[in-house]
Amino acid sequence: MKFPLYIAKRYLFSKSSNNAINIITGIAAVGVVVGAMSLFIVLSGFSGLKDFSLQFTNVFDSDLKVFPARGKTLSFHEDKEKQLMEVPGVASYSKTIEERVFLQYKGKNHIAYIKGTDTNYKAVNPIDSILYFGNWLAHDEPEVVIGLGTAAKLSIGIQDYIDLLEIYVPTPGTGQLNALDPSDAFRKQSVVVSGVYQVNEDLDSKYVFSDIEFARTLLQMDSTAVSAIELKLLPGVSEEGIREQLKPLFSEEIVIKNRIQQNDALYKMLNTENIAVYLIFTLVLIIALFNVIGSIIMMILDKRKNIKTLYNLGATLPEIRKIFFLQGTLLTTFGGLLGILLGVLAVGAQLQFEFVNITATLPYPVSLKLINVLVVFATITILGLIASKIASGRVREKLLN
């Protein structure tokens, strides 16, 4: 192994008498460096975009959320609340009610979801991080907190006690709507907007937060009925262990989702895009490695006399092939490491100086992660081994005779 490695290093770092081969080898090395650097920067940029897209989940979605497996509500009595607080690892919980409602303000309409929350909601989700302006709703008061998108669509401000926001929900019944009296077709409540929250474009138009008792009254729900229970877990606890302890607390069949499962469609979309971007730039890297194959083959042809000399001195054909295999491996490995280093410097510079912006005030998000370093290094190493194996296979007995 030492003999082929020694010769391979000599061939890699020494210049050839043929200037064209030096140029081809230089182009191949630059292609590897640029390819590895580009792949790392793209993966880091997409990681930053992914983190930027998912940052709302840390402030809007709870660690665990309990849903009814069938229907819209589940029963949650006081004895179950006591049992829930005795579950090790549960820091806090909040009962919520969700239902679609119709909003009206000064002739402008919008369809959203009312989300009734109890006093524990602040302990489960950091509402201070999403409150854009105004105050969080006062419980036992006819107040709501709406999203920035809803406020823009309805052209509504906060603390307007003259023109109130009207919330409508359909009256439950089995008959046709035209068979009912129009005044009985919907139930209506007028409320004051106490604050406005901002998370992202979709959620800013989706929810209207209210007190849970207000939502129950509006929806005419039983005092023990809830749409979901949101849980905040203590750091380091086993999520699976908590799941197993929660299931016996409910007589109904329940579904328990963590933060990722609550946004599974978004996670799947982002992961699919990440794989697609990786495959596209890996294809570019494969094309760049064709230069490595070409440079090694040219080196084999240039060193024919040296190869014959080594063969006559006792070097076997596999050992001679190993020389050029190691040369290609070293070229791609060193080039890949240099490209990753340059990529780390570029990503670090973006994090420090923010010289690339999406808008005038929003820098392009990037994320420096070890997994991206490992992925790029593994990719360039595997592809380099394949390219080196293909090129070294050109050393045949016919070349030695």
Report on this structure.
This protein is an alpha+beta fold. It folds into 2 domains: 2-56 and 266-400, no CATH class; 62-259, no CATH class. Helices cover 51% and strands 19% of the residues. It has 14 helices and 12 strands. Strands 3-4-9-6-8-7 form a 6-stranded mixed β-barrel. Strand 3 (90-105) and strand 4 form a beta hairpin. It is elongated.
Could you give a quick summary of the protein structure above?
The chain is of the alpha+beta class.
Q: What is the rounded Rg?
A: 32 Å
Unreliable runs, pLDDT <50, ≥5 residues?
A: none
Q: What is the general shape?
A: elongated
Question: Termini separation (Å)?
Answer: 24 Å
Beta-strand content estimate: 15-25%
- Helical residue percent? 40-55%
Main beta sheet strand tally, sense and closure: 6 strands, mixed, barrel
Number of domains: 2
Rounded mean pLDDT score? 88
**Structural class label:** alpha+beta
**Count of runs of 4 or more consecutive helical residues:** 14
Write the layout of secondary structure elements.
Elements: H1 2-13, H2 19-54, H3 57-60, E1 64-68, E2 74-75, H4 78-85, E3 90-105, E4 108-117, H5 121-124, E5 131-134, E6 143-147, H6 148-154, E7 165-170, E8 186-197, E9 207-211, H7 212-219, E10 225-226, E11 228-233, H8 239-246, E12 254-258, H9 259-262, H10 264-302, H11 304-312, H12 317-353, H13 370-392, H14 397-400
Parallel strand pairs: 4-9, 6-8
Antiparallel strand pairs: 1-11, 1-12, 2-10, 3-4, 3-7, 3-11, 5-8, 6-9, 7-8
